[in-house]
Amino acid sequence: MLLDISIIEFFQLFDRAWMQRILVTAILIGFVGGIIGTFIILNRVIFLGEAIAHSAFAGVGLGLVIGIDPLFMIFLFSELSAFSVGYVNQKKIMNEDIILAIIFSGMMALGIIFIHFLTEVSASVSSILFGAILYVNSRQVLILLIVSIIVIVLMLFFRKEYFFMVFDEDIAKISGIPTKLLNYLFLGLLAALIAVSIQSIGAILVFALFIIPSASSYMLTYNYKRMIIYSSMFGAFSGFFGIMISFLFNLPGGPSIVLVAVLIFLICYGASPKRLTKFINKIKYKYSSKYKTMQEELDHPFGIDVPHVHEGEYEILLQVKKKNFPQDHIWTGHRLLHEKHDSSRKSDSGKEPDKEGGNK
């Protein structure tokens, strides 16, 4: 089905059923992957998806050996690996990175052993490793659509709870949010989405389509809602233009989609307000005439104009005058920040505190 066509001919193919399936699959995986990828970035569980994808590869191998539908085994192995990581993480049995490394390598080795027992390597094995989005069928599109709707609805419905958990999971738990249940729900949704996407994009590249659009949106904004919107848009754009490049230049579909996502990331990185602001401020202060003076003040051992309270001195709010005190912390030269403290002390004790903290 790989074609070498022009842009006009590419758009003329939109009325074909097989082209519609390809476009829907690519755009949907990118869109939903961008949404769930935002939570992956914020939760810092980037390598979890790779471990799940390699578990799916082992499921395909076992399914082909025993004669079971590979899609069912992909779901089974993906969910088992996801919940295994979640259980280990919840019980604090070992470091999460260690268990991910074990699953990553162990499942890949198990899949290779299963394939070794096959008399001939099936096309399903190749599609799982490298993807076959140009050969997607109606059944795969329907399953992807159902899983995508479930993922979108649940992730957006619990977006506030997940954001709270990203900010501080312990506080979220104390506040009454079922953090354990939501963590397992997230892992289950991630595993399901990888399972239905892996035959189209491939086990090697599928997780990149979740991470890269989210990383691109992270370059552009600190806003949580905007990050979700940008990420889903970048994922959908990557899917559409990746398929276009695949047809125009006679390239594989999955890698083309990922390369478009990488290009979008590079553009976002170059135009990132976060990065540009830091760079501009660095240049501004480096060549400013006040830079040296500012550095001297910032490097002061006790800081500059630091508000503080002295115990035993009526606990009034005081302010240190810069470099106006000895190193042995014999405090002199204090001045009151608020006159109301002075008046309140006079009314309580009938005496006015002097500059040294004593009573007149």
Jot down its keywords.
3 strands, mainly alpha, three-stranded antiparallel sheet, single chain, 360 residues
What does this structure look like?
- This protein has two domains: 7-273, Orthogonal Bundle (ABC transporter involved in vitamin B12 uptake, BtuC), CATH 1.10.3470; 300-349, no CATH class.
- With 360 residues, it is mainly alpha-helical.
- Helices cover 69% and strands 2% of the residues.
- Residues 296-329, 337-341 and 355-360 have low confidence and may be disordered.
- Helix 11 (208-218) packs across helix 12 (224-248).
- It has a three-stranded antiparallel β-sheet with strand order 1-2-3.
How confident is the prediction overall: mean pLDDT? Answer: 77
What's the CATH superfamily of the largest domain, by name?
ABC transporter involved in vitamin B12 uptake, BtuC
CATH architecture of the largest domain: Orthogonal Bundle
Query: What is the fold named in CATH at topology level of the largest domain?
Result: ABC transporter involved in vitamin B12 uptake, BtuC
| CATH hierarchy, class of the largest domain | Mainly Alpha
Number of domains: 2
Query: What general form does the structure show?
Result: globular
Q: Tell me the total number of β-strands.
A: 3
User: Rg to the nearest angstrom?
Assistant: 30 Å
Termini separation (Å)?
Answer: 96 Å
Topology:
Elements (H helix, E strand, L loop, with lengths): L6 H6 L4 H27 L4 H19 L3 H22 L4 H21 L6 H8 L7 H20 L1 H9 L1 H6 L4 H23 L6 H11 L5 H25 L4 H18 L2 H14 L4 H8 L8 E3 L7 E3 L15 E2 L2 H11 L11
Antiparallel strand pairs: 1-2, 2-3
Helix pairs in contact: 2-7, 2-10, 2-11, 2-12, 3-4, 3-5, 3-6, 3-10, 4-5, 4-10, 6-10, 7-10, 11-12, 11-13, 12-13
